[in-house]
Amino acid sequence: MVASTCAFIDQRLEDARASEQVADIARQEKLLKLISNELTKNTTRVVEMAVKSEVQNSVLPSLENITKTEVRTALNGQIAKGLGDSMNQVFFLRGFPPPF
Questions:
Q1: Angle value at C-alpha 55, between 52 and 57, nearest 5 degrees
Q2: Each residue of 77-99: pLDDT tens digit?
Q3: CA nearest 84: which of 98, 69, 94?
Q4: Average pLDDT rounded to a whole number, residues 9-13
């Protein structure tokens, strides 16, 4: 009888220990998921800030310089052509041979 009572108590203790282990594992998994989510958010924020900084400090100034150069080149060509055409027209209207 004592042996069966001890066996019963041992089984109950073993069941309680197993139940606590399952609960511990569930708590650990929940905690790891929270930590993982927080790390993901922090990493995303850091990468976003780095990309934003790189775009503002490097990409945008480069695009601005390229755009200025291209617009200047295009405008200079159009202005020179327009000026030349205008001069030819004025000389033609006045009966002079065009200088170009």
A1: 105
A2: 888 888 888 888 877 777 777 65
A3: 98
A4: 88
* Distance from C-alpha of 79 to C-alpha of 63, rounded to nearest angstrom: 24
Instruction: Give the pLDDT score at 60.
Output: 94
How would you write the chain as a 3-class SS string? CHHHHHHHHHHHHHHHHHHHHHHHHHHHHHHHHHHHHHHHHHHHHHHHHHHHHHHHHHHHHHHHHHHHHHHHHHHHHHHHHHHHHHHHHHHHHCCCCCCC
Structure pTM? 0.53
Nearby residues of 87 by Cβ (< 8 Å), 6 or more positions away: 98, 99, 100
Closest CA to 90 of 81, 99, 79, 77: 99
